[in-house]
Write a structure and sequence with these properties.
mainly alpha; 2 domains; 50% helix
């Protein structure tokens, strides 16, 4: 599970009533829910009986799947559906299936899934088509942070970030809840490569966050300059977040002046000035 999937998994119960009505077209206001295992890993413990790739002249290739059955199996219909889904995913071809029944008595096995059980597709919900106001006006913090993934011009990113943070503050959340939502926002921002803007704006807020969750810190840890980046982020509390990040990246000695300026969206002159300050203290 990716860190992005984890956020949605953690928030989905809070999001479900709003998402279902506005985006899924489902009214779940009077629904009852029962938790079931999210694990759908299932090992097929034996090979299918017969499987061939078939190509007939003038026709598209297909997969021919045959099962030999000596007794009635009430689950045969679902077994065949499961096999078909697996085969289609593996070969991405039409799958034609047959069961050769070898029993003595007439078979009573069902051969066709009810319409509501048939696998014909799924609903695709594109968050990048949502209008920011659709989620910003919801009053639900878990939904408000998803505005960072909604439909707006790149040039409006700073404005959207500010609106999200203002909305979160206006909700008067408990400190731990506010921290959790902002931490999640910082993670989601990485999908749109807006993490630097988020860091800069969050740094202006009277809130302490765990910097080890930040993408720059994680990148630093992977590249072996955790200590330098940590020092830089700490320094940023005194001098401003951008300067702190520059400080850390310079300490790491892993980046050129040009790379730091490009990644943090600052001028090379600003990076050079901070470098000179650091050398003056040495």
């Amino acid at each position: 599970m990716s860190r992005f999937d984890k956020i949605f998994k953690e928030n989905i119960e809070s999001l479900l009533p709003s998402l279902s009505q506005h985006f899924f077209g489902l009214d779940l206001s009077k629904a009852t829910f029962k938790t079931i295992s999210p694990s759908i890993v299932r090992a097929v413990d034996r090979e299918v009986d017969f499987l061939k790739r078939v190509k007939i002249e003038g026709q598209a290739a297909f997969i021919l799947h045959i099962e030999f059955q000596t007794y009635d199996d009430a689950d045969m219909l679902y077994r065949m559906a499961e096999y078909k889904a697996i085969l289609q995913r593996k070969y991405q071809l039409e799958v034609r299936q047959y069961v050769l029944y070898l029993g003595e008595s007439r078979s009573s096995m069902q051969i066709e899934l009810p319409n509501i059980h048939q696998i014909t597709g799924y609903e695709l919900i594109e968050i990048n088509r949502w209008k920011p106001t659709q989620v910003l006006n919801s009053g639900i913090p878990e939904l408000i942070i998803m505005a960072i993934l909604s439909d707006y011009p790149r040039s409006d990113a700073q404005q959207i970030v500010n609106r999200i943070l203002k909305k979160l503050l206006d909700l008067n959340l408990a400190p731990n809840q506010l921290k959790a939502r902002i931490q999640q926002l910082m993670t989601l921002a990485q999908i749109r490569k807006l993490d630097t803007i988020i860091f800069q704006e969050v740094n202006k807020m009277p809130i302490e966050l765990d910097i080890t969750e930040s993408v720059l810190y994680q990148k630093g840890k992977e590249s072996g300059f955790e200590q330098g980046l940590s020092e830089g982020l700490t320094k940023g509390k005194e001098t401003g977040f951008s300067e702190g990040l520059i400080h850390g990246m310079l300490l790491s000695e892993k980046f050129t002046i040009q790379e730091i300026a490009k990644q943090l969206k600052v001028s090379e002159e600003q990076v050079l000035q901070i470098q000179q300050k650091m050398r003056g203290r040495a």
